[in-house]
C-alpha cells in the first residue's frame, strides 16, 4: 500500500469528499494535527496536513522538498511545502486568487519547484454557486483562472471539487501521478513526523522519538539530522517497521529492523573550528624562509633613487605601462559611453522623481484626512529613531549612486595614514591578489574544502553506492527515529515536525556566496552588513551579508547598497550547504513583520572569494597645457603626493595618466595624460582594499544558539 502526504486547507477534503462513497475506508487524526485517510479501493494511504495559517517559517520548512505540488491559498503559514508530496491549492470559482495567494505561488515557484506538475482545485460552495448560476459564466471564470495560472506555471490543470465523485477522482489522480524529483535541492533523506514524543519530558534535554515515512534517499544511523527551530542532532537508533493485520483485521506496526550507529563512524556535532590564539603556526599567511627569499628575488626591479619598498611595489615598467593601457581599452570605452549618457539619465530620473513626488503628495493628503481624526495617537505608531536611520540610508544611497565610491580626502589627517590599508591596482581584472593574505581571526573558526566541486561529485557517488545497503533505513519505509539530546520544547497542539538528514560536513560553518535577485515588489534599499533572514536550502539563519558584483574573474567589486531590480552576490558566514539550493532573503522589521526582498540560489561555499572595496579620490585641473595639467584638491600636502605617485590616474572622460611631480606645499601636482585634457574634466585615483564578512551568523535554533553563546563566552 502506497502512502502520500497531502497538504490541504479543508478537513472536508478528507472527510466529506472522500469518505462518503467508500465504506471500507477510514481516517484518523494524528498527534501532529494531520488526518490519515486509508482508501482500500485505491490501496493507498493519504496524510492530509491542515495548516493553521499562523507561522511563516513552518510553511517554508515543508516547501523545500516537495515532489509535486497543488496550490493552496494562504500566505502567512509557509511550513508545509517542504515535506509534502502534493499541495492542494483551493481556489474559489467566484473570487479567484487573492493577493496573498498570488504572493505564495511566486514564493513556492522560486524556492521549491522546477518543472513539477501543478494542480488547481476549484471549490464551489453554495454561496459561489448562487453567484455563478449559469454554466457559461462558470466556465468563463474557470478559463480566466487557467489562463492566469498558465502565465506563471506550466502544465496547469483545473480539477473541479463540487461533490464526492470529484473527490474520488482527485484521490485517484493523486495516486497515479509521478513524484517528480526537484532539481533545486541536493538529494537527502527527510521525514514528516506523524507522531513524536520525548522519552524524558521533565529534563532539559531528552531523546525525541519521531515516527513517519522516510522520503528522499536512504538514511544511515551515523548521519546527523536537522530539525527546524531545534537544531542539528545525532541519532541514537533507527527502527524500521512493517505493517501486519491481526486476527481482528486491525493493522499494526512491528519492528522489522533496528539500526545502531557506529561510534567510530558517527558524525560529530562540532560546527566551528577550534582557535588557538597562542599558536602562530595556525596563521595561514605566515610565510616560510624559502617563500621570503623567492619573493625578494621576484620583486627586484629598477626604481628611482630614494624610493621606498612600499612605493616600489606600485611602480610599473615601460612594458607594463603599455600593457596596462591596452588591457583597459574596453573598460575605457564602456566608461566613456556611460558618462556620455549620464546627463540624460539624471534628467530622466529627475522627471520621474517629480511625477513620483506629485503622487506622494496626493497620497499624503488622503492619509492626513484619515489620521487627523485622532491626532493624539499619531506618534504612538511612529518610531522616530527608525525614521532617522532610514532617511540617512536613503541619502547615502542617493549620494553613492550619483558619485560612485567617491570619498573626500581629509584635510586634518594625512591621506597616506587615512588610506594606509588601500593599494592601487595596475589592472582590476589581471593583477594578482593573494587570497590568503591578512585573513581576519574569524576565518580561523570556519572550514574550507580544497576542491568544493570534487567534494560534491564524491558525495553524489557515495549516495549511489550506499543505496539499498543493509545498514541503512530504506526509503519509503515507515521508521522511528530516536534523536539524542534534543532540548525539551513545548509544542502547540497540531504542531508539525520535519526532520532532514545532513550530508557530510553540512554541520560545519564556512563562507557562503549567494546570488540574489531583488523581487519586483520590494522597493527597499538594502545596505551592506544589514541584517537579513536567509532560507538556504532546508535551513534558515540570520546574518548581515556584504554584497559584491556577480562577475567573472577572481576579484569582485564591493557594492555598498543592494538596490531594487539588481542582481548581486551576498557573502556571509553560514552552515555548509551543497548546491543546488534555492535561497530566500527576508527583511525583518522592528515589529516582527518580515518582507521578502530577494530570491536566488547558492553560488559556492568559498572563503577565498576576493571582494575589493574601491574608493575614488578626486581632483580638479587648475592649469592645462596640451597633455599636461596641474591638479589640485586630491591631496593637501606634498608628502601625500609623493606617496601615491606610482598609482595611475584616470579622468571622467576616459583619459589616463600619472603623477610627474609635486608642486608647492598645498598638495598641487603636475600630471601627464595620454590625451588633451578638457577644463570640465575631473581626475580620479582608484584605491582598493579587501573586505570580509562580519561574524554575524545567528542560528535560528535553540541548540545552536546555546552552543554559540558558550563558544563566545569561552573566547572572552
From TrEMBL:
Residues 355-370 have a biased composition (Acidic residues). Transmembrane segments: none annotated. Residues 288-298 have a biased composition (Basic and acidic residues). Belongs to the TRAFAC class translation factor GTPase superfamily. Bms1-like GTPase family. TSR1 subfamily. It holds the Pfam family RIBIOP_C. GO terms for cellular component: nucleus; preribosome, small subunit precursor. It comes from Rotaria sordida. One of its GO terms (biological process) is maturation of SSU-rRNA from tricistronic rRNA transcript (SSU-rRNA, 5.8S rRNA, LSU-rRNA). It comes from the Eukaryota. Residues 166-241 form the AARP2CN domain. This is Pre-rRNA-processing protein TSR1 homolog. GO terms for molecular function: GTP binding; GTPase activity; U3 snoRNA binding. Residues 406-691 form the Ribosome biogenesis protein BMS1/TSR1 C-terminal domain. PANTHER family: PRE-RRNA-PROCESSING PROTEIN TSR1 HOMOLOG, RIBOSOME BIOGENESIS PROTEIN. Residues 284-304, 353-383 are annotated as: Disordered. Required during maturation of the 40S ribosomal subunit in the nucleolus.
Amino acid at each position: 500500500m502506497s502512502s502520500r502526504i497531502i497538504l490541504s486547507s479543508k478537513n472536508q477534503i478528507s472527510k466529506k469528499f472522500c469518505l462518503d462513497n467508500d465504506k471500507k475506508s477510514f481516517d484518523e487524526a494524528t498527534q501532529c494535527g494531520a488526518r490519515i485517510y486509508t482508501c482500500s479501493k485505491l490501496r493507498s494511504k493519504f496524510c492530509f496536513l491542515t495548516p493553521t495559517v499562523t507561522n511563516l517559517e513552518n510553511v517554508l520548512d515543508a516547501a523545500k522538498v516537495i515532489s509535486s505540488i497543488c496550490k493552496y491559498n494562504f500566505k502567512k503559514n509557509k511550513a508545509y511545502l517542504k515535506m509534502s508530496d502534493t499541495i492542494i491549492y483551493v481556489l474559489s470559482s467566484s473570487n479567484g486568487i487573492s493577493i496573498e495567494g498570488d504572493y505564495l505561488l511566486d514564493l513556492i515557484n522560486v524556492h521549491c519547484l522546477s518543472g513539477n506538475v501543478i494542480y488547481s482545485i476549484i471549490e464551489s460552495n453554495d454561496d459561489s454557486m448562487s453567484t455563478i448560476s449559469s454554466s457559461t459564466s462558470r466556465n468563463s471564470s474557470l478559463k480566466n483562472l487557467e489562463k492566469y495560472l498558465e502565465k506563471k506555471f506550466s502544465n496547469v490543470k483545473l480539477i473541479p471539487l463540487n461533490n464526492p465523485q470529484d473527490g474520488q477522482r482527485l484521490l485517484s489522480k493523486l495516486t497515479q501521478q509521478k513524484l517528480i524529483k526537484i532539481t533545486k535541492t541536493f538529494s537527502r533523506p527527510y521525514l514528516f513526523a506523524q507522531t513524536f514524543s520525548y522519552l524524558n519530558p521533565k529534563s532539559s534535554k531528552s531523546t525525541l522519538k519521531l515516527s513517519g515515512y522516510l522520503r528522499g534517499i536512504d538514511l544511515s544511523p551515523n548521519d546527523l539530522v536537522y530539525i527546524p527551530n531545534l537544531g542539528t542532532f545525532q541519532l541514537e537508533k533507527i527502527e524500521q517497521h512493517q505493517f501486519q493485520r491481526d486476527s481482528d483485521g486491525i493493522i499494526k506496526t512491528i519492528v522489522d529492523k533496528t539500526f545502531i550507529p557506529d561510534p567510530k563512524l558517527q558524525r560529530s556535532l562540532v560546527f566551528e573550528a577550534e582557535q588557538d590564539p597562542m599558536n602562530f603556526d595556525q596563521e595561514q599567511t605566515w610565510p616560510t624562509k624559502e617563500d621570503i627569499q623567492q619573493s625578494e628575488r621576484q620583486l627586484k626591479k629598477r626604481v628611482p633613487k630614494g624610493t621606498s619598498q612600499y612605493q616600489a611595489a606600485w611602480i610599473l615598467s615601460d612594458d607594463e605601462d603599455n600593457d596596462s593601457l591596452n588591457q583597459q581599452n574596453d573598460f575605457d570605452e564602456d566608461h566613456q559611453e556611460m558618462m556620455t549618457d549620464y546627463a540624460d539619465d539624471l534628467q530622466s530620473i529627475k522627471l520621474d522623481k517629480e511625477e513620483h513626488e506629485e503622487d506622494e503628495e496626493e497620497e499624503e493628503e488622503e492619509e492626513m484626512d484619515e489620521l487627523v481624526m485622532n491626532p493624539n495617537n499619531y506618534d504612538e505608531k511612529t518610531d522616530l529613531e527608525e525614521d532617522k536611520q532610514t532617511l540617512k540610508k536613503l541619502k547615502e544611497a542617493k549620494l553613492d549612486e550619483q558619485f560612485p565610491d567617491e570619498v573626500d580626502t581629509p584635510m586634518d589627517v594625512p591621506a597616506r595614514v587615512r588610506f594606509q590599508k588601500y593599494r592601487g591596482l595596475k589592472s582590476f581584472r589581471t593583477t594578482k591578489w593573494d587570497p590568503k593574505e591578512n585573513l581576519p581571526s574569524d576565518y580561523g573558526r570556519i572550514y574550507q574544502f580544497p576542491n568544493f566541486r570534487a567534494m560534491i561529485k564524491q558525495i553524489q557517488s557515495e549516495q549511489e553506492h550506499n543505496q539499498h545497503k543493509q545498514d541503512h533505513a530504506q526509503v519509503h519505509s515507515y521508521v522511528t527515529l530516536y534523536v539524542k539530546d534534543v532540548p525539551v520544547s513545548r509544542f502547540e497542539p497540531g504542531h508539525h515536525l520535519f526532520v532532514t538528514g545532513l550530508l557530510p560536513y553540512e554541520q560545519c560553518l564556512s563562507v557562503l556566496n549567494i546570488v540574489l535577485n531583488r523581487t519586483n515588489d520590494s522597493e527597499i534599499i538594502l545596505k551592506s552588513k544589514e541584517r537579513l533572514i536567509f532560507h538556504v536550502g532546508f535551513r534558515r539563519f540570520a546574518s548581515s551579508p556584504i554584497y559584491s558584483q556577480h562577475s567573472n574573474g577572481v576579484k569582485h567589486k564591493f557594492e555598498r547598497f543592494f538596490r531594487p531590480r539588481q542582481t548581486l552576490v551576498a557573502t556571509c558566514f553560514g552552515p555548509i550547504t551543497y548546491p543546488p539550493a534555492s535561497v530566500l532573503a527576508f527583511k525583518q522589521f522592528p515589529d516582527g513583520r518580515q518582507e521578502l526582498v530577494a530570491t536566488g540560489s547558492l553560488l559556492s561555499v568559498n572563503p577565498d572569494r576576493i571582494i575589493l572595496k574601491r574608493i575614488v579620490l578626486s581632483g580638479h585641473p587648475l592649469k592645462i597645457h596640451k597633455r599636461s595639467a596641474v591638479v589640485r584638491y586630491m591631496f593637501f600636502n606634498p608628502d601625500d603626493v609623493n606617496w601615491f605617485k606610482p598609482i595611475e590616474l584616470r579622468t571622467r572622460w576616459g583619459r589616463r595618466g600619472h603623477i610627474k611631480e609635486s608642486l608647492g606645499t598645498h598638495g598641487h601636482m603636475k600630471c601627464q595624460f595620454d590625451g588633451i585634457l578638457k577644463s570640465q574634466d575631473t581626475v580620479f585615483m582608484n584605491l582598493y582594499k579587501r573586505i570580509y564578512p562580519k561574524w554575524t551568523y545567528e542560528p535560528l535554533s535553540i541548540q545552536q544558539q546555546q552552543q554559540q553563546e558558550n563558544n563566545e563566552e569561552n573566547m572572552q
